[in-house]
Amino acid sequence: MGAVVRVLRGIGRGVRARLKVFAAVALGVFLLDVFLPPLVLSVVRKPWDYFTFNPWLKRLPEYLASATVPLEKKLEFLPNLALFWFTADGPFVPEWGFAVTVSDLSRFIFMSLLFGAYFALWFYRRQSLAQMGWGARTGRQGGVLGALMSTLGLSTGPCTVTGCGAPVMPVLGLAFAGLSSGTITLLSEGSKVATWILLTAMTLGVAYLGWVVGQPRR
Question: Residue 192's domain spans which residues?
């Protein structure tokens, strides 16, 4: 329990000291998660020509309050509920589509806060080492690790898409038309695994930096 308190204390200390860094990184990652996929698809495939919020959302309170719908069905339905989407029309069916579901939005928010905390702690730790007269090599390594993980997460994160034959896959997979079904399946499963690896690594990184920064002051 003491270790958890120390980690949380360190995260709070680092975020408060580098609040602007935390906010800027978190906002940047969130915007990239939402807008990078449709931008990439617009460049490689076809520009999007339609964006909308799910019109059904206005009925969501009624659905949640309904006594005729079992709780289990509600819990199964909500994570996959599309909140908004981008689409590009094709001759007969959409050329591509990118939707953000409740699960997607939750993941985007979690990743944004995680990356924001990581870089806030990294900058705080780097300044502390500089004040102590230590070399900046550790800080540079931490920054490189964070940058690499950022690139990995943004390029391999699974998205809810249409026009590819798989419901969830990395957006770069959808950008290339004509992929075989086996390749699409591999990309879909690989993107899920890569995202969980990324989130786990970043969580451990934030926990470690929180532990270091959260040591009692003398």
Answer: 2-44+102-213
**Better-predicted residue by pLDDT, 99 or 134:** 99
Name the least confident of 67-71, 96-100, 154-158.
Answer: 154-158
Query: How many domains would you assign to the chain?
Result: 1
Model pLDDT for residues 21-37, shown as the tens digit of each residue: 999 989 988 888 888 88
CB 8 within 8 A of CB 214: yes
The span from the CA of 134 to the CA of 71, in Å, is 56
The verdict on residue 62 lying in a domain is no
Closest listed residue to residue 48, CA positions, set 97, 8, 10, 5: 97
Residues near 40 by Cβ (< 8 Å), separated by ≥ 6?
Answer: 171, 172, 175
Rounded distance, CA 116 to CA 110, Å? 10
Query: pLDDT over 70 for what percent of the chain?
Result: 69
- Using alpha carbons, list the distances in angstroms from residue 138 to 3, 142, 144, 206: 23, 6, 10, 15
- 120 CB-near residues (< 8 Å, 6+ apart): 14, 15, 17, 18, 19, 21, 22, 25
Domain membership of residue 55 (yes or no) is no
Q: Hunting for tokens 């329990």 — which residue is that?
A: 1
pTM of the predicted structure, to 2 decimals: 0.78
What is the DSSP-derived secondary structure letter of residue 161? Answer: E
